[in-house]
Amino acid sequence: MVRRRPVTVILLVLIALLVGGLSGAAAATAKPPLVDDQAGLYTAGEVAALKDTAQALGNAYAMDIVIVTTDDTGGKSARDYADDYFDYNGYGVGEERDGVLYLLDMEHREVYISTSGQAIRILTDARIDSILDDVFAGGLSEGDYYGGTEAFLTATGNYLAAGVPEGQYTVEERGPNTLTFKELIIGGIVAVLVAGAYTEKIVKAYKGKPKPAIFDVNQNSQVNLSVVSDTLVNSRVFSRAIPRVEAGSSSGHGTRSTVHHSSSGRSHGGGGRRF
Question: Is the pTM value of this prediction over 0.70?
Answer without folding.
Answer: no
